[in-house]
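pinned: reference chain
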Amino acid sequence: MRGFSGGPGRGGFGGRRMGPVVKPKDFKGTMRRLMEYFKKDKKLLILIFIFVIMDAGIGLSIPYFIGKSIDAISPKSGAVNFEMLKIMVITLITVYIADAVINFLQGWLMAGVSQRMVKSLRGGLFGKLQKLPISFFDTHTHGDIMSRLTNDIEEISSTVSQSMVQLMSGAIMLAGSVVMMLLLSPILTLASVITVPLVFLLTRTIAKKTKVLFKSQQEELGKLNGHIEETISGINIVKAFNHENKAIEEFSDINLKLSKVGIKAQIWSGFLMPMMNVINNIGFAVVAAVGGVLAVKGNISVGVIASFLNYSRQFSRPLNDMANVFNTLQSAVAGA
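pinned: its structure tokens
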């Protein structure tokens, strides 16, 4: 009797003996292998990196110009230095326009790099499939293989390419913000970094949990795709032996497992950002309070406080982004 997929001697409902879905255990090793696919676009990546540096430089200059604009108004007499104010406003408009252009070019180039990575990954995987022994296809469902060629590759490519830009930009913004904050006020800088250990602890804890859950989610998705593909390809056999109800029951069981693990994965991954926002807002409040005390004593100007609060936001934002990127990478690498 032929299995549902039409292969000889592959009996049993579903037409394949389900083998274990092998997923990467070495996160760093997997990332290194994925980076190999970017080598063909090395020159474009260098150009993208230059755009990232320019974008970060503009982002770091904006709070400084805002602070100078505020200080153009004297807090004591209320007199306005219109010449200084005009220069700062024109400068801000210019850098905002430049930032928009740079972001567009950066996104445009990265989209091309990402799609070429998809092409290389898919071509490499398809070529590998042609060289595998028949025993591999006996122990892996068509649906799981199709899932790897489509869902997993798309997830890996989009996540890794976006994450590269975010990580590069985040690292530059983080270092630049710290330097600017130290130049403005070492005391306020100390107040703003007290929440950093909490951020790292939270990220590490949640990333460990989401790594396991995203791995399970990808496995269940492969099983579901395999069941659907083999049931449909063998629908004549299903109907001939009145196995419609059995097919529905097996589908419902796999679908329920996928739903449960998917809910857990999304809950845990979605838990990170709200908690990060709470921690960052606490740090922001501490900086504002200390800055207010220093301003009342006349140690710093209102413009400096405004600039510092912006740099404080820029300092916490890369931490948020990098934590979120690392969390998202767990999902992508689970499909690698």
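why pinned: Confidence is low (pLDDT under 50) at residues 1-24. The two ends are 35 Å apart (CA to CA).
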